[in-house]
Amino acid sequence: MKPFVTGHEDLVHDAAYDFYGRHVATCSSDQHIKVFRLDRETNEWQLSDSWKAHDSSVVGLNWASPEYGRIIASASYDKLIRLWEEEPDTPECSGRRWTKLCTLNDATGPLFSVKFAPGHLGLKLGAIGNDGMLRIYEALEPSDLRSWSLTTEIPVLRTPPASHLQSDFCLTWCPSRFLPEKLLVCALDQALIYQKDKNGKMYVAAKLEGHGGLIRCVSWAPSIGRWYQLIATGCKDGKVRIFKVTETLKNNDHDRDDNESMSVDQEDDEADSKAGIPELKVELISESGDHRGEVWSVSWNLTGTILSSAGDDGKVRLWKASYSNEFKCMSVISAQQRS
Predict the structure, then answer these.
(1) Using an 8 Å Cβ cutoff, are 292 and 237 in contact?
(2) 36 or 247, higher pLDDT
(3) Alpha carbon 127 to chain centroid distance?
(4) What gap in Å lies between CA 145 and CA 138, rounded to an integer?
(5) pLDDT in tens, 170-189
(6) Repeat WD: residue ranges (predicted)?
(7) Are 82 and 54 in contact (CB under 8 A)?
(8) Would 221 be classed as within a structural domain?
């Protein structure tokens, strides 16, 4: 590991690479966002720009797919999501290189996680915060990035928690372009996969069971060359878990008597909206406590073949499937510098 000084004046809450890994954005309790670029000659991170983004701690960042330009979404304790676009002709370190496109202010509590959807789904993003609501926004006119619409609002938690810890909420989108639109939302100790039905409504298609504590981080693996999906979670109980998600088609024939109740008719309508959409089967295939402490971060590589995890032991562990399809720790990277 090679550390570099960010220059933030308070805790750094999140860091996010762009698609090409040549820029990294950081956010902090000092209310600022900083963007660094990698100098190819010196292999050092150089500050590109820094600006005050919110009026409270900035705790979540994400880059949009590069096909839509250089756009960053930020989430803050001030209950706002803001979208920023780079002006490449503006001088670096001027504080004006990134301009605000718009502000989304539907949340009723601090926001903790914001993620853009994969590019093939269009320009949309999901967000969740302390009010326990999953909100999905979409730029209906990609040519006008200042205009966004709230298209989905789902109560993930019926009773929002009294505390508001950033690390208690996270979300990730399914990256596959060959499957129905879906995303995984983690709130406290539950993990729910939401999938879109034929009417465009999101419903809970599956749950990831077996967590023994708060879920700190989640990552959906790219499925290059696989017929199934892999999802990794990092948990307060000290475990890195990997789940296998497969799809099966279900026969949705419904023969009802004419005098059945309206509630049954509503169930039929819901079943019809899901007809032809594969059901999801979730299986826990790996569970490891190698960090011997809380796991704070998990992330797959671009091909979905290697998983990295970081925990309270101050180490990054790399996981890869063996020939028998069992995930084993293949490498351990220590954050401590050698003397």
Answers:
(1) no
(2) 36
(3) 9
(4) 10
(5) 999 999 988 889 999 999 88
(6) 51-85, 288-320
(7) yes
(8) yes
Query: Is-contact 171 113, C-beta < 8 A?
Result: yes
- On average, the pLDDT of the chain sits at 88
Q: Are 112 and 156 within 8 A, CB to CB?
A: no
Residue 253, pLDDT score: 46
d(CA 61, CA 82): 10
11-46 per-position pLDDT tens digit: 999 999 999 999 999 999 999 999 999 998 988 999
In this prediction, residue 337 carries a pLDDT of 52
The sign of the dihedral angle between the CA atoms of 231, 237, 238, 239 is: negative
Alpha carbon distance 31, 55 (integer Å) = 6
Query: Can you tell me the distance from the alpha carbon of 82 to that of 101, in angstroms, rounded to the nearest whole number?
Result: 7
Strand partners, 39: 44
Domain containing residue 101? 59-249+277-334
Q: CATH number for the domain including 322?
A: 2.130.10.10
Q: Are strands 149-155 and 133-138 parallel, antiparallel or unpaired?
A: antiparallel
**Residue 35, in any domain of the structure:** no
**Which DSSP helix (H) or strand (E) runs through 267?**
helix 262-274
Residue 19 domain-assigned?
no
